[in-house]
Design brief:
This protein folds into two domains: 26-291, no CATH class; 306-383, no CATH class. With 384 residues, it is mainly alpha-helical. α8 (128-147) crosses α11. It starts with 12 loop residues before the first helix and ends with a helix. The chain is 73% helix and 0% strand.
Length: 384
């Protein structure tokens, strides 16, 4: 049963489209969610099976010490399971945290940001929906005035007036698609994503399927950014286009619509329509940058690979280098290269010695030299 109000000509095109889309999307999202998570659906059974498998695998890993799971992670895992159950089996919680966040929050944010423009003295920006309806009606009347025909369809006529009428009609179509059309599309996409949201939330359990949840969340974030940017751009459009629209309406009422004002107004609308498309692309790029990194701390805190740690352990220490050099070359200066070649003579250290032999000593501490006092002490002992 459709609970949305019936169409009314008194509301106008803009308000009727936005109202119908918002009401039907809300009703569809709620009914779809309830049908998917209801007792006659496959989803509750599938969710129970996924939770059973998840808990069994978790217990098996903890019991035998497999993977990086630790017993101290149990509270976080239990919290994750509780959040998934709350979002997939309770519409009131899901509506507050997901649906309202994606459907109502962007409009409220856009209204707060556009508040200075709405109170700047502009009649159109004070009520953006009514302002869009006023521009739409004025463009229809201006196109009819240029074509000298009481209607927007004057393609059969020729001449400059007909060309200007066609420009105004194209600007009118661009205005609808770039403002209420774009916002309505974002609302519809958000409603569909919300309706199938429990499936992707349940896939968050396993690492192998967590990428699907991240993709769903990115798409939902995109539908949140698009209405914010759309309403902000629409408010700026209303402020910029108001002087030209009022002047065009005055000349039309005087019986001679101004061609220059109509051209400028059409160009302004087309420019802002292109800006809306660019902002939509930007919103997609911004949402695509969202990443969900839940790697364990032990993995992130140990960036050195196993091969690097093994080579570092097999490398001789400074004291070993000194002892080997004194034993093999007692009269030669001790350096890192000499120690490496001496160490390479030992079994199992040929690779490390060759690697160290290519290293040049660049610090004063890398070369060991005996001082003059040590040489004199050694000479006196020989004479005795």
């Amino acid at each position: 049963m459709n609970r949305c109000p019936s169409p009314s000509d008194s509301l106008g095109l803009v308000r009727s489209v936005l109202g119908a889309v918002d009401c039907n999307v809300r009703d569809y999202s709620q009914s779809g969610y309830l049908a998917l998570t209801g007792p006659h659906s496959f989803f509750p059974t599938a969710l129970t099976s996924l939770l059973t498998i998840y808990v069994a695998l978790l217990g098996f890993r903890l019991l035998f010490g497999l993977g990086r799971s630790r017993l101290s992670d149990a509270p976080i895992m239990a919290l994750k399971i509780g959040v998934i159950l709350a979002l997939t089996m309770n519409w009131a919680i899901f509506q507050t945290l997901v649906f309202d966040m994606s459907n109502r929050a962007p409009i409220e944010i856009a209204r707060i940001i556009s508040d200075p423009a709405m109170h700047s003295g502009s009649r159109l920006a004070a009520d953006p929906v009514a302002g869009l309806q006023m521009i739409y009606d004025e463009l229809t009347l201006d196109a009819a005035s240029f074509s000298q025909k009481p209607g927007p369809n004057a393609l059969a006529l020729q001449g400059a007036n007909t060309e200007m009428a066609n420009r105004l009609l194209k600007a009118q179509s661009s205005l609808l698609m770039a403002t209420i059309g774009l916002i309505a599309i974002a609302s519809i996409v958000a409603g569909v994503l919300v309706a199938i949201g429990p499936i992707f939330i349940a896939l968050f359990l396993f690492v192998e399927t967590r990428g699907l949840f991240v993709g769903w969340l990115r798409a939902l974030v995109t539908t949140m950014i698009v209405p914010i940017a759309g309403w902000m751009t629409t408010t700026i459009l209303l402020v910029v286009a108001e002087p030209w629209l009022l002047h065009l309406a005055q000349t039309r009422q005087a019986g001679s619509p101004d061609t220059e004002s109509a051209t400028i107004l059409s160009a302004i609308i087309l420019i802002f329509s292109a800006a809306q498309l660019a902002l939509t692309l930007g919103a997609t790029i911004i949402a695509g940058g969202f990443q969900l990194n839940l790697a364990s701390k032990s993995r992130s805190a140990d960036p050195v690979p196993e091969t690097g740690r093994r080579e570092f352990r097999d490398m001789p220490s400074r004291s070993e280098q000194l002892a080997i050099s004194l034993r093999t070359r007692p009269n030669a200066p001790i350096s890192a290269a000499a120690t490496a070649f001496s160490r390479a003579d030992l079994p199992g250290h040929a690779e490390q010695g060759a690697r160290l032999g290519a290293i040049k000593a660049t610090r004063s501490g890398d070369v060991y030299r005996r001082d003059a006092h040590f040489d004199r002490f050694r000479s006196n002992n020989r004479n005795v």
